[in-house]
Amino acid sequence: MAVTEPAPVAPPAVHEGILRRQSLRESAARTYARSLPIVPVRARGLTIEGADGRRYLDCLSGAGTLALGHNHPVVLEAIKKVIDSGAPLHVLDLATPVKDAFTTELFATLPRQFADNARIQFCGPAGTDAVEAAFKLVRAATGRSGLLAFTGAYHGMTAGALAASGGAEDVRVTRLPFPLQYRCPFGIGGERGADIAARWTESLLDDPKGGVPAPAGMILEPVQGEGGVNPAPDGWMRRMREITASRSIPLIADEVQTGVGRTGAFWAVEHSGITPDVMVLSKAIGGSLPLAVIIYRSELDTWQPGAHAGTFRGNQLAMAAGTATLAYVRENRLAEHAASLGARMLARLRTLATDHPCIGDVRGRGLMIGVELVDPESAPLTCGTGGAPEAPSDPVLAAAVQQECLRRGLIVELGGRHSSVVRLLPPLTLTDEQATAVVDRLADALAAAERSPHRRITTGSTH
Ligand code: PMP
Prior knowledge:
The chain is built from 16 helices and 19 strands. The protein is of the alpha/beta class. A seven-stranded mixed sheet has the order 4-12-11-10-7-5-6. The protein has a four-stranded mixed sheet with strand order 1-2-3-17. A four-stranded antiparallel sheet has the order 13-14-19-18, covered by helices on one side. The longest helix has 22 residues.
């Protein structure tokens, strides 16, 4: 697809000045801004326009937030309607017609057997706050304090959520093996690898000397996002449901990233047909504005008033934008669209892998796609499914691919244990033509990055 560059909306000095001031004034902890030095000024659907006039296809989508892409008309209309009505924009956790409509729409999208007996808690506006709320809820309900979480998980950046994500020394979290297909820790992959991962969990929980603090809950992502786009096999999800149910351990499904059609079902738990005890939802439910909730089986509702509070739990614009988004995804069957278009994109990327030995793995579900880059010239480290060797991951190449993508007007994210997985999270409104343009640009970027001398400056790949 030819890219016609519109006229810059600001002279180059303005664009460069903004970037320079950002790097001088903002925190060393800033993230996306480091690898994506662009200054977005306008956006619509898949496209972002920078202050320099360049256009980008945005496959980061606000870290998976923009189910309908940027500034979708139904979202803008819903926001304008609230503003024009004179409704208060901020109301703590008070009841409003806007909130009532959001709750009704959200419950209508949930699996019936879950929604019929569920309660909702509006949380502070970030996913991590809802994760914290889920932990408090199950701790209060069970009287236990331990948590079960999985290798490679990501649940947020606040202390408790970070502990469950492997980033803090919280001894109450027991880390269990996630059933990776590629880089299976047992060197097997497939159903057998997932079976061993489940047995490990089962035997550890039943071992009186296993050192597992009595668990208040188990938290899992149906598809690990930040961990490198790792879909959990459906059979393994059902095993986790059985294992937790038979031991009265609440199962918490973190659908912050996988929800609202992203994986090809409205909620990713639907693939396996399990009913969790708690669902953690954020990102796309706010229709691009901040919103986070937990929904849970009503028997767990034993915590006290104020057990989880927060000032910003009543963002009316986010609720209105979220209602419009949920309804649009449901009415236009965008989950099905994500499933079929995602499958076609995966197939094309797998074809690409046959010509590029640096593609170690292509995986995903729906429009949550990952391409793991490896260094095929290094000695294989492990054997994967069927005994196939797996080369070490190549984060340097991945970073080069991300930059080559940006040069070609494509925004992609990196993820995975070593930031060696190129991630695609396009809006669910992606068309066939746009999907082709995305894969074409990625293929082109990959070829350019492979040709670049990046490997010669590598001091040794990590794995
Ligand atoms: N859970 C999952 C599965 C996530 O992907 C994220 C964010 N990437 C979070 C929780 C945390 O959400 P937030 O960044 O809004 O706190």
